Amino acid sequence: MEKVKDGRMPHQGENIRFFRTAKNIKQDDFANQLGLAQSSVTKLERRKVIDDNVLLKSANILGVSIEVLKELDLDNAIEELGKGKNITFENFRMSGNTSSVGFTIGDNTFNPTEMFTTLIERLVKAETELALAKMKEGNK
Predict the structure, then answer these.
(1) CA–CA separation, 78 vs 90, rounded Å?
(2) Residue pLDDT, tens place only, 51-95
(3) With the CA atoms of 63, 17, 56 and 49 taken in that order, what torsion angle do they form, in degrees rounded to the nearest 10?
């Protein structure tokens, strides 16, 4: 039986969706790795309790432990993170085509996916500039 805290059971489908989205894995790619149709993943992510075999496969694809998928209570984690810190989470329940997770600290809103993308873009730009500088040095 899953752990119940404050009368709530963890929602395993939401946990899968959270980690899949956080790792930027599209539903159809995830479905292919699981050997399912994309529509089956949609249904899977809506289920509160999922078969251990599917959870184990999902955990392996997502690079997390099966225990995290079984026992993580996202609602409780959000509440704990926000205590006394003025942190709110937006679009945390991903529905329809919305697949972003955002959070606000004070007056600043952050989207981790955008932050990661910006970081990668800066890294690629810096590497390109370094390569060009080395090429110019070699031509002198």
Answers:
(1) 11
(2) 999 999 999 999 888 998 998 887 776 666 556 555 555 544 444
(3) 150
